[in-house]
C-alpha cells in the first residue's frame, strides 16, 4: 500500500473554507471528510477541531514567526503552518515527523516555493518553543485562545470567574445521552451499557442524563436506533424539569429544530398537545426523524413565529423559546465559534431574540409559562435581555427557579460550562399575569 | 540491496497465487531487505512478494510515521476478531494514483514467521489491520480494486493502460 498523505490536503480544504467564512465546522466536515475513511476521519476531526480550538494561540505564534503575512490565495499554506504548530504544541507526534509531513503536504499543494518557508517557520517554532510559550502567557487572548472582543465581554460580564469559563471552553466536552424515560430508566440503561462494555455514569444536573466516559458513534450505542436514548447535553435536558408540564397542555416549541428539546419535553410528558415550528425546513426534517425514532407524537410545521401563520393563530399554555444565540456556552463543542462569530453578529442576534420574545408573548395564555433559553454565557443575550423585556411588559413576571438547592434568583438560571459535565446555558421562566 | 520492479495493474502476474515458504534462509532475507528498500522508495507502507513478481507467501510493511518499524510476515494467516466493517481510503503501489474507500473487518489476529523463521502472532487494529489484509489479499491474487464496482474498476484499468501506452510512445 502507498503511504497516504492526502488527509492533509483534505484538512487544508476544510480549514481554508472555515477561515474564509464559507461555513461552520459542523456543516463542512460531512462533505469535506467524505473522501476519507473512518481512521482518517477521526484524525481530520482532531486536526480541524484542535486548530479551531487553539486558533488564536497558533495564529499569534505564526504571525511572530512569519516575516510578512501570506497572500490571501496562500491561505492553504497558512493552514498547514497552523496545523504544524498545533501538532508541535498539543499532539504527541514527534517534531521531525510534523515538520516532514508539513513540507511533503506543501508539495502536494503544488506550491514548492513554500517548502522552505514552512520548514523554516516550524523549525523556528521548535527551537523557540519556551520563549514563544512565555510570550503567549502575557497575552490573555492568545493564552486562552479567544478573540479579544469575546474575551473582554466574558471578562466584563463575569469578572470573578471569567478565567474558569475561558479554560472550560478549551476542554473537549463529554458525550452525554438523554435516557428516554418512557422506555427505560437511567439505572437500567447504565447497566445495559456496562454489559456492552461501555463505561458511563449518571449526570449530576439532569435526572435523565448519562455521561459516557468516551465518545462513540451513536450507531454503536445499544438501544439508540430503537429510541432508548438520544444525544443531548445535560443543560438542555433540564428543559423538562424547569417548564411545569401536565397532560393535555397546549405547548408551542417556537424554535424547535433539530428537535432535541421537543423530544425531551414529550418524553417527560407524552400527553402534551405540542406544536413544534421552525423557520428552517431542512433542520425540521431532523426533528421529524428524532420524533419517529423515539416514537413520540407532535405536530411539526414549517413556520416562522415572526410572521403571521395559521398554525399559530391560537393561544398556548406553555411556550418554549429556545432562541438562536451566539453559542458562547458551547464553544467547547463548536470551537469554530471563536473563529467565526463577530460582535456585529451578536448585536444582530440580540435584536432577533428581542423580536422573538415580543412575537411569542401574545400567543401565551394568561397564567401560562414561557421558558426562554440560550446556549450563551453573555449577559446581553440572557439576563439583560430578559430584564429589558420585563421592564416593557407589564403582565410578565420572572419565576424564581429553585435549583439544586440554590435559588437562581431574579435574573434567571445561568450555567457555565463545566469540565466533564454540562455546557454553558441560560433559562428564564416567565409567567403571564 | 537493490530496488525491485513493482508490477502494475492490470498485469496478470498480480493474479497469481503465492506458494508457502518452506525454508527461511539467507536468500529469503535478501529478498525481504530488497522489498523493504523498494517499499520505502515508493514510498509505501506495505508490499507483498506478488507485487515484485515473486510467488511466495511473504509481505513486508511499516506503518510508522517515521519509517523506523519494518516488519516481515512469512506465511501469514489472518483470523478476524471483530468483523464490524471499517472504511479506509486505500491505495496500492500496483495501482498508482488511485484511492478509494474499502471496508474491511476492524480487528484481526495474524500468525506468521518472522525473518528468522520464528513463529509469532499479533492483534491488529486501525491502519495496521487494513494494511495486513490488503497485502495478504495480494498473496491470493486479489487487489483492492476488486472491492470496487465493475464500472470504477474498468475506468481505472483503461486509464492505467492508456498512461502506459503514452509512456511507451514518448
How does this model look, in words?
The complex is a heterodimer of chains A (433) and B (170). Chain A is an alpha/beta fold. Chain A folds into three domains: 3-138, N-utilizing Substance Protein B Homolog, Chain A (Orthogonal Bundle); 176-231, Sun protein, domain 3 (Alpha-Beta Plaits, 2-Layer Sandwich); 234-432, Rossmann fold. Chain A is 45% helix and 15% strand. Chain A has 19 helices and 14 strands. Chain A has helices at 7-19, 25-32, 38-53, 55-65, 75-90, 95-108, 115-127, 129-137, 140-143, 148-157, 162-169, 186-195, 234-237, 239-242, 260-268, 281-293, 337-340, 343-360, 383-392, and strands spanning 175-179, 200-202, 209-212, 229-231, 250-253, 273-278, 299-302, 316-322, 364-374, 396-398, 402-403, 406-407, 413-415, 425-432. In chain A, the strands form three sheets. In chain A, strands 5, 6, 7, 8, 9, 10, 13 and 14 form an eight-stranded mixed β-sheet that branches. A four-stranded antiparallel β-sheet of chain A has the order 2-3-1-4, covered by helices on one side. Chain A has a two-stranded antiparallel ribbon with strand order 11-12. Chain A starts with 6 loop residues before the first helix and ends with a strand. The model of chain A has no long low-confidence stretch (mean pLDDT 93). With 170 residues, chain B is an alpha+beta fold. Chain B has helices at residues 26-41, 126-139, 150-169; strands at residues 46-48, 58-61, 71-92, 95-113, 119-125. Chain B is 29% helix and 32% strand. Chain B has three helices and five strands. Chain B is globular, with a radius of gyration of 16 Å. In chain B, strands 1-2-3-4-5 form a five-stranded antiparallel β-sheet.
